[in-house]
Amino acid sequence: MTVRLVFLVVTLFSLFSVWSQELTAAQLLDKSIAFHDPNNQWSTFEGDFTVEMTTPNASKRVSHIKINLPLEYFSVSAKRDSVNTYYEINKGQCKMLYNGKSIDSINDKGMSCDRAVLYKNYYTYLYGLPMKLKDPGTVLDKEVEKRTFKNRDYLVLKVSYDASTGSDIWFFYFNPSTYAMEVYQFFKTDDSGRMILDSGEYILLSEIFVVNGIKMPQTRAWYYNKDNKHLGTDTLIEN
């Protein structure tokens, strides 16, 4: 057998081994967490990062986010054009600034403490994935699906949530070789809990940006499920 043929056989065997391995959903999630959080640091995460958001027909927005999970602290300072907004949640206490001026309650600019909590949950969830899939209220489907998406093969987890947590259904797509999370997708549900197939969005993840030991996707490109329309792109940039 020639060296080239031996190499081909070994390569094919390796690929077959990856795809024939019967992982449970919990095992797949653990392998992805081991990739993104190799030192098990998320539960004590303390760090800051900057996100540049670009959207069609709108100016760029740059947001600086600080998260300290042990101290129950979150803040986001965002700038778009000449407008600067600041939200802070510190042990449940809310603080807001609009162009440097303090705001005590909802105003005509749409700022509120409810929005501050929304931003806290949004950024902590998205940048804490896949570790956040261990949170209470998360319902992990037992089956691991093999699916091709955008001409690439993935191992896929289906996730739903307790009624008190949320009603959307999510799918998380993992690289079958590295277990890196590379795509996620969500759908709305109707009153019977069935997925509304022309609802929701999918998000393509690319590159890796390490923040205090956590491997975060550097770029998130958002698209509608129904027509593949591009909604915008979030990119982690140097502070």
UniProtKB/TrEMBL annotation:
Organism of derivation: Winogradskyella pelagia
Name of the protein this chain belongs to: Aspartyl-tRNA synthetase
InterPro entries: DUF6503
Top-rank lineage group of the source organism: Bacteria
